[in-house]
Design brief:
Layout lengths: L1 E2 L7 E5 L8 E7 L10 E6 L37 E10 L2 E2 L5 E8 L2 E5 L2 H9 L6 E4 L4 E4 L9 E5 L5 E5 L3 H20 L5 E4 L6 E4 L35 H11 L3 H6 L12 H8 L5 H13 L13 H12 L14 H13 L11 H8 L4 H12 L4 H19 L1 H4 L3 H12 L9 H17 L1 H5 L3
Antiparallel strand pairs: 1-2, 2-3, 3-4, 5-6, 5-7, 5-12, 7-8, 8-9, 10-11, 11-12, 13-14
């Protein structure tokens, strides 16, 4: 049934289907004026067929409520030019690795640029308001490759930009992600063959380029070695550069082209891998042990002079002193925790908690988070303990041994509860979110935190039964 009004008033259309088909109601609101056309807005609500199974919804770890989630596999046809919802994670910024956080983003391929919008509505607003710009990625000089080793998710590919930024894009449907991979790959190939004069100098702290057009052909790029993580500067020259008698730009170009890669510097020992923020397995392999040396040193220092400290592990130490301790550890300088500058035992415990919080993958690996939560939900106490015990013995050796060392230490902290006022429950609240968290937000962080605390409390209470020794 259609209801029409004059051209100056809104027009409301109401469409309904018979009760034999899927119930659907669609409402459209249009408005126009004699002088100019206004933005038309459409709001639709479709009731799903109860006979059809519901598709899973992609979830992001932080700042994404359930009602904002959108099924990226809902559309059968993928159109990179018009846009589509994909899962995106930025894992490097200017060659520096960043923490991987997945977000559901409206992605549009616009020529040589990849645009990321919060949702499809933001694209419509951006098109009408030029001042509102989305996050964009310049595909000039970029690389694209499948990246099954970068994430536990399926259907993932990696985009590495000329400035050293790295993005992961993923979709539940292989056909969807394959079309995006091919479209972006063609865009990169076309851009590399375009032969444009692209004189670009990247600002050190900006994602914008200062572009200049010249008459000379661009300088051919040096082949970039595999796994090179350093920032790439693109320097091309116009005819006016010949007036530079001192050849400053020429010397700068040669210096940059000859600089060694990050991998070469690490192999020569000039740049060393750090301790904080390093994968636990990688750190243990480097040190030739199954428990990090820094963790052992902190545990020994606390057991030597801090078990009776009031609020041990709950009270925070001086942050600047903790950062100083971290710097010494990362530079692999000789560490003596008995030194007077580490006299405050809360600095040592603060550094230990920071070490666990900054692990790229927590002490309880991501793939074990859900199994541990399901185990802690078991009603029968004995079965619950056995389920947790079984899971702990499935952990990688460095994770298992480090966990055993830490929880044995926390048992000694609990034994001094009359002095330090730290109970099993108190340590569970401190170490629950520190030792395990989900890779993606389940939608209710408060509930997750309860389970995290309960898992730590159970291991502390049943330490002897779970690990088989005292």
């Amino acid at each position: 049934m259609d209801i029409h009004s004059s051209s100056h008033k809104p027009v409301v259309e109401k469409l309904s289907t018979s009760h034999h088909s899927v119930g659907a109601v669609q409402m459209r609101i249009k408005s126009s004026t004699t002088n100019c056309d206004r933005l038309s807005q459409t709001k639709s609500m479709v009731l799903p067929d109860p006979g059809q199974p519901q598709k899973p919804i992609s979830r992001h770890r932080r700042n994404l409520s359930q009602h904002n989630l959108i099924d990226i596999t809902a559309g059968e046809q993928s159109n990179p030019g018009k846009g589509e919802y994909l899962n995106k994670a930025k894992i490097a910024d200017g060659g520096k690795k960043t923490r991987k956080n997945w977000t559901t983003t409206w992605v549009v391929l616009d020529g040589s640029k990849l645009l990321f919008y919060k949702d499809s509505k933001q694209q419509a607003v951006t098109n009408l308001k030029p001042g509102c710009k989305p996050e964009s990625v310049d595909l000039y000089g970029a690389r694209i490759e499948w990246a099954a080793d970068k994430s536990s998710r399926k259907n993932v590919f990696l985009i590495t930009t000329g400035s050293g930024n790295e993005f992961l894009l993923q979709a539940e449907s292989y056909s969807t992600i394959s079309k995006w991979h091919d479209a972006i790959g063609k865009a990169i190939e076309c851009e590399s063959k375009s032969g444009k004069v692209h004189s670009s100098i990247r600002k050190s702290s900006s994602t914008e380029f200062l572009n200049r057009c010249g008459s000379e052909s661009p300088v051919s790029k040096e082949h970039k070695p595999e796994h090179r993580r350093s920032l790439i500067f693109k320097l091309n020259y116009s005819a006016s550069d010949s007036a530079d008698k001192n050849g400053v730009k020429n010397r700068l170009k040669k210096f940059i082209s000859r600089r060694p890669s990050m991998k070469t510097l690490q192999e020569k020992g000039i740049i060393k891998d750090q301790v904080f923020g390093c994968h636990l397995i990688t750190l243990c392999e480097r040190e030739g042990t199954t428990t990090p040396t820094f963790v052992k040193q902190c545990v020994e220092a606390v057991e030597k002079r801090g078990l009776d400290a009031d609020g041990i592990y709950r009270v925070s130490g001086n942050l600047s002193t903790i950062q100083k301790l971290r710097f010494i550890v990362d530079q692999e300088e000789k560490l003596n925790l008995d030194d007077s500058q580490w006299e405050d035992i809360h600095v040592v415990t603060g550094a230990l908690k920071m070490f666990f919080r900054e692990l790229p993958e927590p002490l309880f690996p991501y793939r074990f988070f859900e199994p541990f939560v399901e185990a802690i939900k078991i009603r029968d106490y004995n079965q619950r303990v056995q389920a947790v015990k079984k899971l702990l013995y499935q952990l990688p050796r460095p994770h298992h041994d480090t966990m055993k060392l830490l929880f044995r230490h926390l048992q000694k902290v609990i034994a001094q509860a009359s002095k330090n006022l730290m109970s099993t429950q108190g340590l569970g609240i401190v170490f629950g979110p520190t030792l395990l968290w989900p890779e993606l937000d389940s939608g209710n962080m408060a509930v997750d935190m309860v389970y995290q605390n309960q898992i730590v409390e159970l291991i502390l209470t049943e330490f002897t039964e779970i690990f088989g020794d005292k």
